[in-house]
């Protein structure tokens, strides 16, 4: 069985995938993530991902997910583009839907349990993990420094004063 057997964005039996220690990797266009669209100023480019199936010492299925790429987030202060390096490395423990998640796994901070019937939508998992990894309020250290022509635009003391007045 090779990686090509798994269709992009879809693993039919994630438990089998783990026990057979299979691997799935590839690239996904940033534009493919619909829920991400509103948070970005630019949807060009790709992210690279790798999903590795394995079993832990207790013979429990384990997935190691790695995602790398670069995203253009929207700065919450000036709404301009903010380049951000995406780097996710997460261990996941698939648990069949309806089955109780053992307490010791809930206490293990290193592993996130995911409830699943077997069929794994990789694209959706990647998007979930990317959304979790994003900073809550991305901001430039200093807004405006990337403005073209003439560099940073300094505010005149008068406009600062009128701004203060408007607040009162
Ligand atoms: Zn900004």
From TrEMBL:
Asked if the record carries the keyword Signal, the reply is: no
* Chain coiled-coil ranges: none
Alphabetized InterPro entries for the sequence: YceD, YceD_bac
Q: Name one Pfam family in it.
A: YceD
| Gene Ontology CC annotations of this record | cytosol
Q: Which family does it belong to?
A: Belongs to the DUF177 domain family.
Biological role: Plays a role in synthesis, processing and/or stability of 23S rRNA.
Could you tell me what this protein is called?
A: Large ribosomal RNA subunit accumulation protein YceD
Species this chain originates from? Parazoarcus communis
């Amino acid at each position: 069985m090779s990686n090509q057997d798994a269709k992009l964005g879809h693993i039919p039996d994630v438990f089998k995938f783990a026990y057979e220690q299979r691997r799935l990797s590839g690239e996904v266009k940033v534009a493919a993530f619909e829920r991400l669209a509103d948070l970005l100023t630019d949807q060009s480019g790709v992210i690279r991902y790798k999903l590795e199936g394995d079993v832990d010492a207790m013979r429990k299925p384990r997935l190691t997910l790695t995602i790398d790429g670069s995203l253009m987030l929207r700065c919450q202060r000036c709404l301009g583009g903010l380049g951000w390096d995406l780097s996710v490395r997460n261990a996941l423990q698939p648990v069949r839907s309806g089955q109780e998640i053992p307490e010791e796994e809930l206490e293990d901070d290193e592993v996130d349990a995911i409830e699943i019937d077997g069929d794994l939508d990789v694209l959706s998992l990647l998007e979930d993990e990317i959304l979790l990894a994003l900073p809550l309020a991305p901001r430039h250290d200093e807004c405006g420094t990337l403005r073209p022509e003439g560099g940073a635009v300094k505010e005149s003391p008068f406009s600062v004063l009128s701004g203060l007045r408007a607040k009162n």
